[in-house]
Specification:
6 helices, three-stranded mixed β-sheet, signal, alpha+beta, six-stranded antiparallel β-sheet
Length: 207
Amino acid sequence: MKFVILALLALASGLHAAKLDLKELKFVLFGKHGDGTKTSVAAGACPLGTLPATVFLHKTFKKGDHFFTWVRPVHAKVDEVVCGTHNVWKAAVGEVLLDLHFVGNKDSEKFLHLELFHPAVGSHHLFLKFAAGATPGVGVVLGMGAFVVGVHGLVADLPALEGLPAHPFVHALVAHAAHAKHAGAVAKDGLAAHGGALVAADAKAAL
């Protein structure tokens, strides 16, 4: 039933879908948001301000100097994502955005997960990595494993933050963090923390 509803929404999206500008959302810190207790919202004010018609909810968490931002768009309302003048993603015909997760900051490498829906294939995922700096260029498409490893390398303790959305991507981060800790401590399964095979130091020297 959910698939049918999403398919009907996606088919009708061409009439109503619009562009989502991530820059306009900003990194709004409120409630449980990771490191520190200071929020970026004035007392008594709505933490999200006036939401664009394309966004149902967004929430940002801070870990060190990096941010984790979750955006839940209004279903069938977003077929393009930009950040200011930078083009991030453009939908195929009939495709719409279901969920978005961003990890990074303006100076670091940036990781973006998009959950999408297309009538022909159903729900599917796109994992993108952008270069560091103010001009990140075109996103490089990654597999989910490489994406999770990259996010973990950028913000190692991210999945320990309270209040993160219950999403398969977040669950994968938690699982990888646990594996990395285990492999780094005992390495009995022959895997390095990054998921590659461990090679003994003397074996490396012989290569």
